[in-house]
């Protein structure tokens, strides 16, 4: 019995409610939004973040002029600069990310609260996968809010999560994971939450094949499951690489590389590129 089948045994929505009238459509829209744009965004996002490590491996010659060990910082800064220079970035964030995330999260919480695993009739593995999908969904909602609020909106939550400065991308992320009130514990929490999101996406990708009628037979579900598992492993490795890279990065050395990059991008009047998050000293002190 599949996870999707287990998930259909749920508490029925209130008779005549909007969700009951459009349940079939909303289930499929919820499934689709989990893949695009949210799930597919996870791939370039983790790839970009892990560039703090793979950039050092593949771009060492390109950034040799910045000094030994600078390639990862320079690569990540290049990726961040590209993103922040996208035209109409705020509209992309609102309509391509934040609203779809809110839609998926809202329906996901509703479906999770009304769904029931049937441990007496269905396979233990399928019920556990369904339960983990709900648990990782809750973790994902909380983590994404904290992640966006701190690194995009600048909320520090009283020094728990130092904010992000796109002009000093690597050093500020390292400070974010190392110098908050909880210190390096934040990196451990990040790792747990990122792996939870990866499982949620990979498992959701598998159940989407059933939801959309693309994997009807047991063989098709098994083969698609292997593909989804491979995607999940690759994303998990990227997530572990990213968290490990920033957790072990020296913020002061990273800032020195970033200042060299700033110097190379002086404008025609010799004015350095401004830091959008304010003074570096403020970013280095939890709670400021």
**Number of DSSP helices?**
12
Report the strand count. 0
Strand content: under 5%
**What structural class do the secondary elements suggest?**
mainly alpha
Q: What string gives the helices and strands in order?
A: HHHHHHHHHHHH
Largest sheet: none
Mean pLDDT: 86
Features:
288 residues; mainly alpha; 0% strand; disordered N terminus
Explain the overall architecture.
The structure is a single chain. It contains 12 helices and no strands. Helix 3 (23-49) crosses helix 9, helix 6 (89-114) packs antiparallel against helix 7 (124-151) and helix 9 packs antiparallel against helix 10. The protein starts with a helix and ends with a helix. The longest helix has 30 residues, at 218-247. 32% of the residues are buried. The chain has helices at 3-8, 18-21, 23-49, 51-58, 71-84, 89-114, 124-151, 169-178, 185-211, 218-247, 251-264, 280-284. By secondary structure, the chain is an all-alpha fold.
